[in-house]
Amino acid sequence: MSKGDMPSVLRRERRVWGLTQNEVARLIGFRTAEQCSRLEKEIHLPSSEVLLSSAIVFDVPIEALFPRFYTRIEEKVLLRAAAFYEELQDASDPASIRKREFLDLVMQRAIARKDDARL
Fold this sequence. Notes:
Elements: H1 9-16, H2 21-28, H3 33-40, H4 48-58, H5 62-65, H6 67-88, H7 94-118
Helix pairs in contact: 2-3, 6-7
């Protein structure tokens, strides 16, 4: 079974509680079960309201509930952080140094999360 074929955490949580897609749709603000089905497949990134609603309903962090979305967004953020870091590389003023320190922390946290996920 490939990663894309694995049941989503959202689907697993829904089934643990004996909820239908229609019932979950109602709880998180969707109109139809089909919307819930698409969310479970993690095909299109939903709104922040739907992500947060899902996390609230199931009491599961967004990154655990939607790992593929989280990874996809994290990669984009890290690319932007790396580019920003490069722009600041030659600056020696205190504000730029502080920003580079912050960007280092952002990237270190992401690396630590990936290392933790491998364990």
